[in-house]
Structure formats: structure tokens, C-alpha cells
Amino acid sequence: MTTAGQAPGQAQANLIAIPRDWAYDFLLFTHRNPKPCPVLDVLDAGETVSSLKQDADVRTHAPRYRIWEHGELVAEPENATEHWRDDLVTFLIGCSFTFETALTNAGVPLRHVDQGRNVSMFVTDVQCRPAGRLHGPMVVSMRWIPESLVDIAHKVTSLMPAVHGAPVGAGDPHLLGIDDVHSPDFGDAIEPEPGDVPVFWACGVTPQAVLMKSKPPFAITHAPGQMFVTDMPDFAYRVG
To answer: Does domain 10-95+206-237 have CATH number 3.40.50.720?
Structure first.
């Protein structure tokens, strides 16, 4: 179940828990790649409650999790408790679902929400800046936006840099190394309406692409599009 369109007005977050001896590398990676990996919170090793949602456990609050071993996906449980380790450092990273209420309020339609689907996500050929042992490509989310509203979508989202901010591309998907916008790497294919153009935002699933390339021994993430919903209002991440 995707959390797109759920909990309107509340910030949502991507989640990755990584062993403590890899946590500095990951923190450095987020610092060097703030567009796809804007950090909202970092928990101490073994800690399971974030200040962003004090009545929730990071091991159980997302609808579905992914368990990774040496870059391979080995399980997708609804509850990650039995996989938990006390040396895991959890990062909560901004999610573009957070700015979707603002887009709706500005009159920008959300085709994936209207169709009851997850947003489309693609691995690009844009390489993130490496950090320590971590390297890999940027992932983007794509929304079909009426061409006449692309400038408005750009303006609205640019005011929310903590949840990916302005788009990284619009129009030609080949500029990002995307061959077919109807065959996403994560999420669902979305049907456009006449006059729509594809618009791409940096995506917090990027760490999962980095896990596949860098192959740390263990990690836990959320499943793409099945986010950690916080108690923070979305406007808390709006600037200006």
C-alpha cells in the first residue's frame, strides 16, 4: 500500500537503518548529495523512536520494509523488528509526498493519486558524489504534469528543499538516462492525460540504489512509496 495521497498535510519520510560502522559514510553521503538525500532526523545506534513521530517505532510504522544483505534484497516484511540489530543507525530522509498537498492546493493534479497508484521512480545515469565506501546513481520520482502548470509545480516545490525541492528535469527523460517512462524501476506506471509532460524530482529511494552498488553487509529500508509518516506538518519544511 502506497502512502501517496495519505495523511495530507503531514510530512512523510524515507527510512534507512545502516550499521554504525557505515553510518559516518552514509551521513557524509547525505551531506554531499542533499538533493536526493535531505536528512530530517538521525537516531542514535539502536534507537527506535524519532522526535518526528514520538508514538511510533521505526521498525513497525512504515507499511512495508526491505531487508538488504550485501546489496541484495532478501526480504520485504511488514514488520522489521525480528531483523533489527542494536548497532543500526536510522536516518529519516525527506520525501516528495510531503509537497503533494501544496501542489494540489496550487491546482496541480496528481495523476498517481487520482489513479490510486504509487508514484513512478527511475534509476538515472546521474551519479551521486561518492562518500567513503558509498557510491551509486540518483533515483528520481516522476509525475505527469500539465505543461501549462510545470512552472507552478517548479515554484511550489522549490520552496521545500528539505523534501527534495525543485525538479531536476522536465520533458525529455533521456537527459537523465531514462529510456521508457512507462516502465519504472520502482513504483507503478502512470497514465498521462493529453498535454501532460513528465517532470522529475530527486528521490529518497536513492539510498536503495546505493545499497545495490556499494553492498554494505546489512541494511533496513522502507519499501519504495511506503513511507514513514511523521507528525510534522508539511509547512514546517516550507521556506520563504
So the answer is: no
Distance, in Å, from the CA atom of 124 to the CA atom of 210, rounded to the nearest integer, reads 12
CA atoms within 13 A on the CB side of 138: 26
- Amino acid occupying residue 194: P
Domain parsing of the chain, residue ranges: 10-95+206-237, 99-205
β-sheet bridge partners, residue 89: 18
Q: Which CATH architecture has domain 99-205?
A: 2-Layer Sandwich (3.30)
pLDDT tens digits, 138-182: 999 999 999 999 999 999 999 999 999 999 999 999 999 999 999
Q: At what angle do helices 20-32 and 206-214 cross, to 10 degrees?
A: 130
- Asked if residue 4 lies in contact with residue 119, where contact means CB atoms within 8 angstroms, the answer is yes
Q: Report pLDDT digits (tens) over 201-232.
A: 999 999 999 999 999 999 999 999 999 999 99
